[in-house]
Hints:
Organism: Corymbia citriodora subsp. variegata
Domain NADH:quinone oxidoreductase/Mrp antiporter transmembrane: 3-145
Keywords: Membrane, NAD, Signal, Translocase, Transmembrane, Transmembrane helix, Ubiquinone
Oligomer: single chain
Protein name: NADH-ubiquinone oxidoreductase chain 4
Structural class: mainly alpha
InterPro entries: NADH_UbQ_OxRdtase (IPR003918), ND/Mrp_TM (IPR001750)
Amino acid sequence: xxxxxxxxxxxxxxxxxxxxxxxxxxxxxxxxxxHAAIYLLGVFSNSVTGIEGGITLGLAHGFVSSGLFIxxxxxxxxxxxxxxxxxxRGMAQVMPLFSIxxxxxxxxxxxxxxxxxxxxxxxxxYGTFENMPLLGALASSSIVFSAAYTIYMFNRISFxxxxxxxxxxxxxxxxxxxxxxxxxxxxFTVLFGIYPSPILDGLHYSVSSLIYVSP
Length: 215
């Protein structure tokens, strides 16, 4: 119970911190703290669904968060030497391929259906609801918060104005190496989001034994 309460406080506090930042890498980092609190909540929910969801969300977060950090640091910062969201308006005009990959990873960060993050987050919250309905309801606020700051980030970077208004130098789209890395993370996120059975089937026996079999 104390860990679950701490997790809910972390979810809400980290989400508010994420909403007010204008640094793209800080935004992704704070959102990672919020999502880490969700899968911590699932692991300590003392239910098979919650524990499986916590492990699944941890795996999903590894795909999506890695991809977003590559987008922010390995692509955007490498080309422009700034991390402020304000200066990235209109990136879709000059980096369309990057914007598509960035969009799918952003959907995963927001826990959108057909992504592995949705499967993990839903199972974490459902498992929490089984034993702690009030904390589960409070933790569900992360659904709204994650959508808010992720949509803000993507919209302001990819759209939100004219690109040429802020940069005088031309910025190239993703190269072959960057595309392969980001596309691989996107494929795993979407593929397991549509068909999560290979992950969940592998977890079910071990998690059930952990909960129901006495040592």
